[in-house]
Amino acid sequence: MLGHQGYLKILVSGAYASGKTTFVKTVSETILTTEVPVTSPGEQKVKEYTTVAFDYGKVTVDGMPVYLFGTPGQTRLQFMWRVLSYGMHGYIFLVDGSNMMEVYRAKPLYLYMKSLGNYPHIIAVNKQDVKGAVPPRQVAQILSVSPEIVYPLVARDKIVALGVLKQLVNLIVTTKPSIKTDH
C-alpha cells in the first residue's frame, strides 16, 4: 500500500468549524497553517480564524512519517479538497458532534469525500466533551456507515486525537489498495 514512498499522506477533512485545524495542531510535531481572521459576519459568530488553503502537519506514528493535510471547511474553498486529495493514502473525516444540525450538515461533505475514491478512512465525531454531544453510533446511522469506522474525538486532547490517527494508520497499512487515482 505504501509503495516506495515510506510515508503516509492523510487528509483531515470535514465541515466548517468541525475541528480540523485543532486536530492537526494537536497531533503534529511540525505545523504550518493558513489561518486568517474570519471576515463573514455569520462565520465570525462561530469562530475567529479560518483556514483558506490548507493546514499541514507532520507526525511519526509507529515509526511511520505521516503528513497531514487539513482541508478548508468553507464550501467556497471545497475545490481544494480534490487538489489536496491527490496522492493521499486515506482520510479522517471530522464531524462536529456538538449538535444534530452539524451532523446532518456534514453528510453531503462526507458523500463528496467518498466520491473521490474508495480510500481507507475513519469518521471522528469531535466535540464529545460538549454537553449533549451526538454519540458516534448515532452519527454512523445518519451517515449510513458501519459503526466500526466511527470514533469519538476531542480534538484538543492529544491522547485521544493520536489514538484516532493511529486507528487510521493501522487501517491504511492493513488495507489492500483499491484507490481511484484519476480524479
Automatic annotation (TrEMBL):
SUPFAM superfamilies to which the protein is assigned, alphabetical: P-loop containing nucleoside triphosphate hydrolases
Keyword set includes GTP-binding: yes
Keyword Chaperone: no
CDD domains: Ras_like_GTPase
Pfam families: Arf
Gene Ontology molecular functions: GTP binding; GTPase activity
Keywords attached to this entry: GTP-binding, Nucleotide-binding
Family matches, as PANTHER family: ATP/GTP-BINDING PROTEIN-RELATED (PTHR42708), GLIDING MOTILITY PROTEIN MGLA (PTHR42708:SF1)
Protein name: GTP-binding protein
Species of the source: Thermofilum adornatum
